[in-house]
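step: validate -> pass
step: tokenize input -> pass
step: predict -> running
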Amino acid sequence: MAMTPSRSPHFSASGRGREMGVKSCLLRLLPFAALVMLECVDTGLTTISKAAMSKGMSHFVFVVYSNALATVMMFLFSFFFNRTKRPPLTYSLLCKFFLLSLVGITMMQNCVFTGVNYSSPTLASAIGQLFPAFTFLLAVMFRMEKLDLRSSRSQIKILGTLVSISGAMIIIFYEGPPIGVTTLPSHPEPVLTAKNSWVIGGLFFATASLSLSVFTIFQAAILRGYPSEMTIVSFYCLFGTIQCAIVALIAEKNPNAWKLKPDIELVSVIYSAVFGNVVTYSVATWCIHKKGPVFVAMFKPLGIAIAAFLSVIFLGDTLHVGSIIGAIIIVAGFYGVMWAQSKEEEQIEAKEISEQQSTPLLGSRTNV
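step: predict -> pass
step: emit ->
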């Protein structure tokens, strides 16, 4: 009688171990892939919004419409997919959501799109590299990040943060000659006006980066006590819409600005609502919950190359020497901070592994 070969327990265990290892690896890579995608989405948003504003769309009205559409979508998703899992809401929690939207939507988005109106998406991505530096400083202030001044790694973090800030100052105050431009435009813009617009746009972007950093740290703190990402995003989109509507009614005096044209204006609002708000905020909130605020900030330098590529192709913008120099300095300082942080995480993981390995030995000795 023929015997069917059976798999040994060792073979089955090793196969399951490999399968679990692959799944674990994919789960670890998921936040990386999500944040790279978000940088592409974010840069695309500034590019398409610049195109809409060049056609005459008010950036105040743009922010209101995109957040209003995002609010409707988020509450629908929350109603169908999150109604049974949602923890109870309290008055203090709603107040926190209101403050979160004030910083992360009303201040940040209005500053971003005002800056885009004055300058370009490339400058937005370049100044956006301040976001990791600001986030690191705030994380240290609120004790979410450990800092030992006697440690060489902590010293590298501080130096890298200062280098990043100095690079941003170069971008704001030194535009430099354009790269790859051989002919002058037929109607050149006055130099002083162009320079003022560049500086004003840069200052708006720097303010937006600081607002985004405060928003990220504040959101991480809220997630510790209320781990429902979809509910948080739904409510701060709602409060952000109300706040931005008040700002737009005060700042926008032309009633015709509220008329939405069925062209690039409508496309930009839908793109901003779906990708810039719903997708970006949901994924970023999930990544903050899983990996922390500093990890989310580390992917911002990818936006420089993406923004330069899209702006040159779709908007006809030109790169300037100041942007390239400043961006290189910012990225160098930032990755110095990330290198030091990765070494600290490796040290912590090694310590945890050694403690786990020593615990069974102690237990067996106790039983003996």
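step: describe -> Residues 321-367 form the longest helix (47 residues).
step: cleanup -> pass
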